[in-house]
Amino acid sequence: MNSRVSAALFDLGGVIQHFRGNGRAEAEKAVGLPPGTLRRIAYKGSFALANYGVYSHQEWLEAVRDDLTAEFGPHAGAAVEVWAKDPGELDEDAVAVLKGVRAQGIPVGILTNNTTGLEADLAQLGFDAFDKLINSADLGVIKPSPVAFRLAIEAMGAPAEEIFFADDNPTNVIAARYVGLRAVEFVSVPRLIADLAACGITLPPPTPDTKGERRG
Known about the structure:
- The protein is of the alpha/beta class.
- The chain is built from 11 helices and 7 strands.
- Strands 5-4-1-6-7 form a 5-stranded parallel β-sheet, sandwiched between helices. The chain has a two-stranded antiparallel sheet with strand order 2-3.
- The longest helix is centred in the first third of the chain and has 16 residues, at 57-72.
- The protein is elongated, with a radius of gyration of 18 Å.
- The two termini are 28 Å apart.
């Protein structure tokens, strides 16, 4: 990559937003579920349907509640309310990168496989350092489908070859390159800054206390 881009797309989970499992652990403890129960039950077929927009976020949560009560009894369903309050956390160094890109007049988009609860989570986190929010639940298709990337390109309003894209999933990176995006694998914030610089977007280095490792 050796020329400046005109738009930038970023994955959300694993790049900017991270879930540490604190909400799940708190919910399991609150109702006496074995550790790991919510991870095992929540991220099955109903979660995939929520990412495609077939289920709303609330319908996904209710499906999880049904599975919990079926396996552990009526009391277990109360875990859902506790778990659902966790919006994850932001990597502030990554957020600073997005703000730095936008400060140079380059539109920033978020392309994420997510549920219809995404906007509420981002509002709770106070994250708005983007111009376009492109959510699989709205598209009806998920990464790594080329269709998802082509719809994102259309939303950004720039040619594919002029759009920078970063994702922590190597499969998504391959698919993005297939449709012409200038895609890189996210491994750390310093590496992301270097990849942007290769496209002519020069940002200040992260603060000295930045760990620089991929989180989440």
